[in-house]
Amino acid sequence: GAVVSQHPSRVICKSGTSVKIECRSLDFQATTMFWYRQFPKQSLMLMATSNEGSKATYEQGVEKDKFLINHASLTLSTLTVTSAHPEDSSFYICSAGSGRGGTQYFGPGTRLLVL
Amino acid sequence: AQTVTQSQPEMSVQEAETVTLSCTYDTSESDYYLFWYKQPPSRQMILVIRQEAYKQQNATENRFSVNFQKAAKSFSLKISDSQLGDAAMYFCASAQTSGNTPLVFGKGTRLSVIA
């Protein structure tokens, strides 16, 4: 149990376009999901907390108008990178808590390359 | 605020030997959870082991065990009988008791296993 999927796994796009990444909890409901960004050989950096039915909470320094988060249901959160630029190229990972003892389960991640 | 420190950027171990990865943390919470996650080259985050702070007994999962020293705020991971598949990035993390709070990660330790 406690499986989180993420789609797409890899995306290449042109500068100026928007990209949507989906994160789904497959076998449990998640009122809260988290979005992280990871640069090569570095740790995970929390971008935002996604709350079902309400606005996301963004970490300091993360542009909410650039990284749009929608948590429309208890099993789906989406991250849209708007007007992507090469500096947005990174590895994006989502996670969801099942509510059991603080444990979070991670999606497999999305590699974004902006040309 | 919680902080997690991993002071060993890289470690290596001979196959079948034992290795210990260090982690210290700081928190003002009286109850919290501690985790070790493994990130292999696929970059999928995998939960290795979890410790509840109110439990004095150290958690174990097959070849993986922790040495939890609450007063010293230390949470080291011991890997016994190391296998080639254990080679990965290991992240220590902490979280408040609720599953709806984000994980705070250390910078990670890259473990190499030598055949």
Describe this structure in a few short sentences.
The complex is a heterodimer of chains A (115) and B (115). By secondary structure, chain A is mainly beta.
Q: If interface size is counted as residues with C-beta under 8 Å from the partner's C-beta, which chains form the largest one?
A: A-B, 24 and 26 residues
Strand/helix succession of chain A:
EEEEEEEEEEE
The rounded distance between the terminal residues' Cα atoms of chain A is 37 Å
How many beta-strand elements of chain A? 11
Radius of gyration of chain B: 14 Å
Instruction: State the low-pLDDT regions of chain A, or none.
Output: none
| Bulk shape of chain A | globular
Radius of gyration of chain A: 13 Å
The tally of beta strands of chain B, per DSSP, is: 12
Mean pLDDT over all positions of chain B? 94
Per DSSP, the total helix count of chain B is: 0
* Proportion of residues in helical segments of chain A: under 10%
Can you summarize the main beta sheet of chain B? 6 strands, mixed
Helix content of chain B: under 10%
Helix-strand string of chain B: EEEEEEEEEEEE
Approximate strand percentage of chain B = over 45%
Biggest pleated-sheet summary of chain A = 7 strands, mixed
The secondary-structure class of chain B comes to mainly beta
Number of helices of chain A: 0
- Class inferred from helices and paired strands of chain A: mainly beta
Report how far the terminal alpha carbons of chain B are from each other: 41 Å
How would you describe this protein?
- The complex is a heterodimer of chains A (115) and B (115).
- Helix content of chain A is 0%, strand content 53%.
- Chain A has 115 residues and is mainly beta.
- In chain A, strand 9 and strand 10 form a beta hairpin.
- The model of chain A has no long low-confidence stretch (mean pLDDT 92).
- Helices cover 0% and strands 52% of the residues of chain B.
- In chain B, strands 2, 5, 6, 10, 11 and 12 form a 6-stranded mixed sheet that branches. Chain B has a 4-stranded antiparallel sheet with strand order 3-9-8-7, with no helix packed on it. In chain B, strands 1-4 form a two-stranded antiparallel sheet.
- The mean pLDDT of chain B is 94.
- The chains are: A mainly beta (115), B mainly beta (115).
